[in-house]
């Protein structure tokens, strides 16, 4: 019973997550950027823009210039999250279906992945404390901002519980997800009975479902930010949005 | 960063008067400190002139909400920025208006949230289901008036966009908010009246063609008296090579006029055949301040028409910050293509680029000692610093004006690194708020810049501040005295050029007397009363751009 509920819930959440994000990306891509508003000094070439974007995404460069505390906590959290996610890949893929070198890479990450979890929760805790203690940040926070951090912290903590407190039978979990991932319809392997596991999975489901409707859209959003992704070349290149082009056909222009 | 420790901050603030405060020092938060600052609203006529409803329409809520929907289909910035903010707080201490007023709604993210909360309520699922959870709220009359007050306390300077991890630019949100307010009939008098003037007369000051011609003739006489050579300020000269588009403040106010003299001398010395236009007699484009593409485009098209009409080969812009943003970053899109101009030159060029090139080519000579009575520093105008470039390398907008100043002055010192270049703090008067009814926020918003200036005056003996923006110059003339500086401490960059340039056809025995020393106000009990009167004339200070 529990297995079926979680199986269906994961299918539902996955579809929502993938379709939701794809739809957002489609929307962002569709809306024109009618004017060049790059924050200067900006790169004057496309490859320069790639580099700028890389520094923003991989190093949080602007944030570093801006506020060292947020940068440290935020970076620990995101880097931790990334490593933890990579570490989780082994639960969803069958080694027989991936090339060896990728699998080796994933295996290589495993030991670091353990510490990554702590880094992630430490960073999150720092951000959460900041959100409460620094009056400027408290002022701009809605309940959802606090809850988002709580949700992620709880995901981390319930993960630790499975590992260190109430050891969960990971092999069964893996079998469950493999049966989902490889679409063994209605032959889902049973989930082990474990409270931390139930909590962990439920919170992850919530995270997946709210992703396309919340501020987590910053992840795709950053790539579409005109101040960061535009080439500084307006004197050389005209950019006319389709709706702006329509104005050109008016008779006011010589 | 001591921001986790509030008592320490309070202590710092308490001795702010005695010790030299850090220019970017954190204020004590005072919620709603500026909530009642309400600039004059546009009269029905000013609204109608720009194609907006004369007064608040009956179904304004519906119209405003529909406008939000419209803008999110038209501007990617608006769409992505409303969705992406994570409320990390990195921008909260980056706005000079927050630093100067302590009002938390002047923190960039809080300013965005005034609109984002409404967007969430009507355009996102969580905001529709659980507004209390995600900080969404209905669009009420109170919200509208909050928009009006706080979106007119933003100079659209983009300092916040530099420091936001996603580059969220509050200026984009302010512009959109002003456009929404215009579309429901709640426009601002200062901006909209000026734009109407540009449409009907050709410049922000509302100076008709005749007056411009007469003024230029006066200036020519003045220049000839000063230098002994017939330096021209041609107007509407057909077939000239260069069209100079400059802020109309250059025809009217100090220190702008001396900047205009500087351009004229450079052109004369280089033998450039140039002209002003009476129809494109304004570089500023206030259409940007109100986020109106239509108005911005219409104002830009005047320049195209003037260039075609006069048959010029290139276009050069005078010293103006926001104008240079529209010129550099938007003009090609709004009024291009410029295929009828000489392809050897970028369109448009900045007068600093022009002078810089001539200096580099060794075509100009200077007597730097003419500026020896001053030690200068340079105020990077936000819109030039963060929205444009000069020359062909990123950062040329910082290096070129400094190079020009250093070529004509012996004494120069930069202000604190985190208050210049891309991190420059605004003069406090940009983005359509250079009006007396907003003086309170203008003075307070200037505080970080004034503190940075105070620091270099005390530590490095700086006496004068140079700028290349008409708004900055006008704003500084007003706020410098409030911070115990002399109002005349503000200089145009080309004024410095004008002081030092050696005119090769000048009569030999002529000795140009050194200009009067604009000393600091400590030595001068009351600021020059004549200049003061000038600035109090509403025509003088209200329509500058
Ligand atoms: C392209 C990938 C991503 C980039 C570049 C990115 C970048 C950032 C940056 C720069 C911040 C602000 C600083 C901070 O608070 O850490 C932030 C905040 C945040 N990010 Fe990401 N992020 C990415 C993906 C994700 C993902 C996949 C999640 C999903 C869990 C996430 C969750 C969060 C949360 C919850 C915050 C707010 C932290 C707070 O409340 O202070 N991010 N992100
Ligand atoms: S820095 Fe950017 S993401 Fe962070 S609170 Fe400010 S606007 Fe939002
Ligand atoms: S654009 Fe400038 S004035 Fe406006 S919120 Fe940002 S920092 Fe403040
Ligand atoms: S007036 Fe000058 S300093 Fe102020 S926003 Fe404009 S360019 Fe910046």
Overall description:
The complex is a heterodimer of chains A (254) and B (545). Chain A contains twelve helices and no strands. By secondary structure, chain A is mainly α. Chain A has one domain: Up-down Bundle (Fumarate Reductase Cytochrome B subunit). In chain A, helix 4 (68-92) packs antiparallel against helix 5 and helix 7 (143-165) runs antiparallel to helix 9. The longest helix of chain A is centred in the middle third of the chain and has 34 residues, at 100-133. Chain A starts with a helix and ends in a 6-residue tail after the last helix. The model of chain A has no long low-confidence stretch (mean pLDDT 93). Chain B has helices at residues 6-14, 44-49, 60-74, 76-84, 96-101, 108-123, 125-129, 131-134, 141-151, 159-163, 170-184, 189-200, 209-227, 256-270, 293-310, 321-335, 351-360, 382-387, 396-408, 439-445, 447-460, 470-479, 493-500, 529-536, 538-541, and strands at residues 242-245, 274-275, 314-317, 349-350, 376-378, 464-467, 490-492. With 545 residues, chain B is mainly alpha-helical. In chain B, the strands form two sheets. Chain B has a four-stranded parallel sheet with strand order 2-1-3-4. A three-stranded parallel sheet of chain B has the order 5-6-7, sandwiched between helices. Helices cover 48% and strands 4% of the residues of chain B. Chains A and B meet through helix 1, helix 3, helix 4, helix 5 and helix 6 of A and helix 3, helix 4, helix 6, helix 8 and helix 10 of B. Protoporphyrin IX containing FE sits between chains A (57, 60, 63, 70, 74, 77-78, 127, 145, 148-149, 152, 216, 218-219, 222) and B (86, 88, 165).
Helix residue percentage of chain A = over 70%
The computed structural class of chain A is: mainly alpha
**Annotation, overall tally of beta strands of chain A:** 0
**What is the domain total for the residues of chain B?**
2
Give me the number of helical elements of chain B: 25
Ends of chain B: how far apart? 38 Å
- The chain-level mean pLDDT of chain A equals 93
Query: How many strand segments of chain B?
Result: 7
Question: Helix count of chain A, per DSSP?
Answer: 12
Helical proportion of chain B, percent range: 40-55%
* Percent of sequence in beta strands of chain B: under 5%
Strand/helix succession of chain A: HHHHHHHHHHHH
CATH topology of chain A: Fumarate Reductase Cytochrome B subunit
User: Based on CA inertia axes, which overall geometry of chain B fits?
Assistant: globular
């Amino acid at each position: 019973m529990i297995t079926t509920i979680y199986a269906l819930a994961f299918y539902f959440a996955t579809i929502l997550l993938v379709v939701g994000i794809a739809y957002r990306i489609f929307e962002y891509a569709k809306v024109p950027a009618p004017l060049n508003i790059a924050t200067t000094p900006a790169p004057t070439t496309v490859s320069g823009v790639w580099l700028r974007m890389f520094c923003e995404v991989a190093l949080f460069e602007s944030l570093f210039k801006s506020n060292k505390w947020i940068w440290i906590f935020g970076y620990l959290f995101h880097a931790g999250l990334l490593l933890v996610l990579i570490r989780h890949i082994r639960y969803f893929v069958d080694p027989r279906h991936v090339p060896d070198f990728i699998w080796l890479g994933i295996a290589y990450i495993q030991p670091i992945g353990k510490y990554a979890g702590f880094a992630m929760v430490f960073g999150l805790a720092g951000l959460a404390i900041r959100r409460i203690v620094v009056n400027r940040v408290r002022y701009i926070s809605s309940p959802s901002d606090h809850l988002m951090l709580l949700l992620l912290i709880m995901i981390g903590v319930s993960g630790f519980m499975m590992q260190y407190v109430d050891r969960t039978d990971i092999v069964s979990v893996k079998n469950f997800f493999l049966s989902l991932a490889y679409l063994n319809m209605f032959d889902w392997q049973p989930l082990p009975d474990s409270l931390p596991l139930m909590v962990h999975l439920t919170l992850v489901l919530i995270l997946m479902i709210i992703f396309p409707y919340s501020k987590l859209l910053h992840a795709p959003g950053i790539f579409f930010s005109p101040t960061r992704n535009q080439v500084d070349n307006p004197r050389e290149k005209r950019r006319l949005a389709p709706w702006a082009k329509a104005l050109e056909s008016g008779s006011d222009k010589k | 960063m001591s921001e986790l420790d509030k008592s320490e901050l309070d202590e710092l603030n308490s001795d702010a008067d005695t010790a030299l405060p850090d220019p970017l020092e954190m204020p004590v938060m005072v919620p709603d400190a500026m909530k009642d600052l309400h600039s004059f609203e546009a009269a029905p006529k000013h609204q109608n002139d720009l194609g907006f409803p004369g007064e608040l329409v009956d179904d304004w809520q519906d119209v405003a909400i529909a406008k939000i929907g419209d803008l999110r289909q038209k501007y990617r910035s608006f769409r992505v920025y409303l969705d992406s903010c994570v409320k990390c707080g990195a921008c909260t201490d980056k706005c000079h208006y927050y630093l100067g007023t302590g009002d938390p709604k002047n923190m960039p993210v809080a300013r965005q949230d005034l609109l984002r909360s409404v967007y969430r309520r009507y355009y996102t699922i969580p905001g529709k289901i659980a507004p209390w959870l995600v900080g969404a709220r209905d669009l009420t009359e109170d919200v509208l008036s909050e928009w009006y007050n706080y979106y007119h306390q933003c100079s659209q300077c983009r300092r916040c966009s530099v420091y936001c991890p996603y580059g969220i630019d509050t200026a984009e949100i302010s512009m959109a908010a002003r456009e929404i307010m215009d579309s429901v009939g709640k426009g601002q008098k200062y901006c909209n009246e000026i734009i109407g003037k540009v449409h009907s007369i050709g410049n922000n000051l509302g100076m008709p063609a005749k007056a411009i011609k007469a003024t230029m003739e006066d200036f020519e006489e003045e220049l000839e008296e000063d230098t002994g050579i017939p330096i021209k300020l041609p107007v509407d000269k057909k077939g000239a090579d260069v069209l100079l588009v400059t802020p109309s403040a250059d025809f009217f106010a100090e220190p702008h006029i001396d900047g205009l003299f500087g351009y004229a001398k450079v052109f004369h010395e280089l033998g450039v055949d140039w002209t002003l236009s009476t129809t494109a007699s304004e570089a500023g484009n206030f259409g940007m301040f109100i986020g109106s593409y239509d108005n911005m485009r219409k104002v830009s098209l005047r320049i195209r028409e003037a260039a075609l009409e006069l048959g010029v080969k290139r276009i050069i812009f005078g010293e103006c910050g926001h104008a240079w943003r529209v010129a550099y970053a938007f003009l090609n899109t709004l009024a291009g293509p410029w295929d009828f101009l000489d392809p050897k030159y970028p369109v448009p060029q900045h007068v600093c680029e022009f002078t810089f090139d001539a200096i580099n080519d060794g075509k100009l000579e200077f007597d730097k000692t003419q500026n020896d009575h001053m030690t200068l520093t340079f105020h990077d105008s936000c819109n030039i610093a963060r929205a444009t470039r000069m020359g062909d390398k990123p950062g040329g907008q910082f290096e070129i004006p400094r190079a020009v100043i250093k070529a004509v002055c012996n004494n120069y010192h930069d202000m604190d690194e985190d208050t210049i270049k891309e991190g420059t703090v605004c003069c406090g008067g940009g983005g359509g708020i250079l009006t007396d009814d907003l003086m309170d926020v203008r003075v307070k918003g200037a505080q970080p810049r004034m503190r940075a200036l105070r620091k270099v005056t005390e530590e490095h003996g700086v006496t004068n501040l140079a700028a290349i923006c008409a708004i900055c110059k006008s704003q500084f003339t007003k706020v410098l005295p409030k911070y115990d500086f002399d109002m005349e401490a503000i200089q145009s960059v080309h004024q410095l050029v004008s002081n030092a340039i050696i005119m090769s056809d000048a009569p030999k025995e002529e000795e140009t007397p050194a200009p009067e020393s604009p000393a600091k106000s400590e030595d001068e009990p009351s600021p020059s009363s004549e200049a003061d009167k000038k600035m109090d004339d509403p025509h003088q200070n209200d329509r500058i751009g």
